[in-house]
């Protein structure tokens, strides 16, 4: 009787362990796509060798420049709360456009207190050619 009890208890314990392992494996498989997305987004805790650029993304030359200009244009548009096509130094700071805010006086050559996105682009191009 004791042996039968031990055998049944052992069988139940093994079944419980197998179910736990199976559930853990399923949870790990479900988390794998999330980890892959994090690696693509540049998670700082993912080793550089495991990071993969998203398909179709180029990080050099004209493609990189276009990507930077698009992102800057989006941020500039968000900062332009009055939809005037230009922003003030305070709006630039509030929107997190530190470069624009820190160089605002140089960008605003006319001294109007407002700069347009094309003013920012011209300033950046002038700085780029001066540094080369």
Automatic annotation (TrEMBL):
Record region (Disordered): 36-59
Protein name: EF-hand domain-containing protein
UniProt domain EF-hand: residue ranges: 95-130
GO MF, any single term: calcium ion binding
Recorded coiled-coil stretches: none
Keyword Signal carried by entry: yes
PROSITE patterns: EF_HAND_1, EF_HAND_2
Record's keyword terms, sorted: Signal
Position of the signal peptide: 1-25
């Amino acid at each position: 009787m004791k042996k039968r009890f031990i055998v049944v208890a052992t069988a139940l314990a093994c079944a419980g362990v197998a179910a736990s392992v199976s559930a853990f494996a399923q949870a790990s498989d479900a988390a794998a796509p999330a980890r892959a997305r994090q690696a693509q987004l540049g998670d700082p805790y993912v080793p550089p060798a495991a990071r993969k650029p998203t398909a179709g993304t180029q990080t050099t030359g004209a493609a990189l420049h276009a990507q930077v200009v698009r992102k800057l244009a989006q941020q500039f548009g968000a900062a332009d709360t009055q939809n005037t096509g230009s922003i003030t130094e305070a709006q630039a700071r509030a929107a997190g456009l530190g470069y624009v805010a820190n160089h605002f006086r140089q960008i605003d050559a006319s001294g109007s207190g407002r700069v347009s996105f094309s003013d920012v682009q011209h300033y950046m191009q002038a700085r780029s050619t001066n540094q080369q």
